[in-house]
UniProtKB/TrEMBL annotation:
The keyword Metal-binding applies. GO terms for molecular function: alcohol dehydrogenase (NAD+) activity; metal ion binding. Its cofactor is Zn(2+). It comes from the Bacteria. Keywords: Metal-binding, NAD, Oxidoreductase, Zinc. Pfam families: ADH_N (PF08240), ADH_zinc_N (PF00107). Belongs to the zinc-containing alcohol dehydrogenase family. Its EC number is 1.1.1.1. GO terms for cellular component: cytoplasm. Residues 37-156 form the Alcohol dehydrogenase-like N-terminal domain. Residues 204-321 form the Alcohol dehydrogenase-like C-terminal domain. This is alcohol dehydrogenase. Signal peptide: none annotated.
């Protein structure tokens, strides 16, 4: 068999900002190991800070430590040992790529049933300890190794880095949420005649506003306690309401906030035959009450979506390409921070200042990994 391993340049180590707990990130030179069959090495250009990493740093959710956090990123292949993209094409040096957050075995019963996100042997970008076999797994680093069983997609040059970086979490998760209610193809009117409520206008909620329109929804309503975020949603084409109001009766309700009050509001907003898709409930919260009789007699349903399947990554990039060309981006992205200075994005004083000005906080801050 011909070995088509591409030799990388003189790079033998990566700069990784290793998370040591709290808001402590330690710049660490990590050796780049020889690539195993199916692996590829990416030089990351930009990563974006997902809210879930803020939950990790604040202690709101558990994650291995020490580790390289970060799971949204974009970069270029600099070496590959027979790595393939989602279409089976070889990954070549210079290819600009995004990648999925999970690497699955592809063989266990969950994988074969279409639940690779819940593979029995799953590994996740930005969630592996530095002592594991996948130390360079996060995007708060100069390089990342992509593994077999991980979705990788080549992307065009005209999609800006900050937008492209969100494909591997925010955008793909939104596509999975709509898939849960039967929406398979963008620009196909799967939701014609339907009304959609979107709870929580963070990055996912904003993308969901656009996706709902592309899937043909008659009405798209966005709810959030933050007036600045509601203004963003209106600019992207939604009608809006304050989060605590429940004056709508909708066919589809998607919650991206995870806040118990918002989850209850989403469920209680369902019309007969409606479906609630819960996406944001990924950290511990108090339980909520659901009336089983109301659910059953109304043919209502509740489902959850956590992460996504590899096939959602392509439509996610298509969604982002549409948004890049047709939507206003002012207020969506904030400042860009050098990789070595990433601690400033998470430290207590910085976080308190952000909290005080939460009405004007951008949905994503960017890390320059070059």
């Amino acid at each position: 068999m011909t070995d088509n391993t591409q030799l990388r340049d003189s790079t033998s180590s990566a700069l990784a900002m290793v998370w040591r707990g709290g808001s402590t990130f330690e710049p660490t030179s990590m050796p780049i190991p020889a690539l195993l069959p199916g692996e590829s090495l990416v030089r990351i250009s930009t990563s974006t800070i997902c809210q879930s990493d803020r939950h990790t740093v604040s202690g709101r959710r558990q994650s291995p430590c020490p580790s390289v956090l970060g799971h949204e990123g974009v970069g270029r292949i600099i070496a590959s040992n027979n790595g393939k993209d989602l279409h089976g094409a070889a990954l070549l040096a210079g290819d600009r790529v995004v990648w999925s957050v999970i690497a699955a075995c592809g063989e266990c019963e969950r994988c074969t049933q279409g639940l690779q996100a819940k593979c029995h042997h799953v590994q996740k970008v930005g969630h592996e300890p530095t002592t594991s076999s996948w130390a360079l797994s996060g995007t708060y680093a100069s390089h990342i190794i992509l593994r077999p069983g991980q979705g990788v997609l080549k992307i065009e040059e005209d999609l800006p880095d900050p937008i492209a970086a969100t494909a591997g979490c925010a955008a793909a998760t939104v596509i999975a949420a709509f898939d849960a209610v039967g929406c398979k193809t963008l620009n196909h009117p799967s939701l014609a005649g339907k009304s959609v409520l979107i709870q929580g206008v963070g990055m996912l909620g904003l993308y969901a506003v656009q996706a709902a329109q592309l899937f043909g929804a008659d009405t798209v309503i966005a709810a959030d306690p933050n007036p600045t975020r509601l203004a963003l949603a209106r600019r992207w084409g939604a009608t809006t309401r304050e989060a605590e109001h429940q004056d709508s009766c909708v066919d589809i309700a998607l919650d991206f906030s995870g806040a118990p009050q918002a989850v209850e509001s989403a469920i209680q907003s369902l019309d007969i035959g409606g479906t609630a898709v819960l996406v944001g409930s990924v950290f511990p919260t108090p339980p909520i009450a659901v009336d089983p009789q109301w659910l059953v007699r109304g043919w209502r349903s509740i489902t959850g979506v956590h992460n996504y399947e590899p096939h959602h990554l392509g439509p996610a990039v298509d969604l982002l390409s549409h948004c890049a060309k047709h939507q206003p981006w002012e207020g969506v992205f904030g400042t860009t921070t050098a990789l070595r200075e990433i601690s400033a994005c998470f430290d207590t004083a910085h976080g308190a200042a952000q909290q005080q000005s939460q009405d004007h906080r951008p949905l994503r801050n960017m890390i320059d990994c070059r």
